[in-house]
Amino acid sequence: MKIPVPDLLTLPAGASYHGKNGQAGVNVTSRGDTLVVTSTCDSLQRLVLWYEEELTRIRGDTVSVSEVSETEFKQRFNPVKIALIAFIAGVASGILSTFLKKRRLYEK
Hints:
There is one protein chain. The model has no long low-confidence stretch (mean pLDDT 81). Strands 1-2-3 form a three-stranded antiparallel beta sheet. 64% of the residues lie in helices and 20% in strands. With 108 residues, the protein is an alpha+beta fold. A hairpin with a 2-residue loop joins strand 2 and strand 3 (34-41).
């Protein structure tokens, strides 16, 4: 799209130039002493929409997988429970070995 500079400088407030070439489009608007140029491309918009949908799907999958993993981890591994079981097993084996040693000493 070709717009002569004098035409841009005399663009009234709220007016704009529009142009389209195939899938590409451009919009030129004057806001005070600033020119605002906005361009679009249909194929890029479709691609952006596809990526946004794909990102939403992947985020949803990631959230559900991480929730399942956290639940499984909590169900499988509780360090306090394991430490308590190990302590009880150690005390029980100590008592049992002490009992067996004393029993052997008295048998002789």
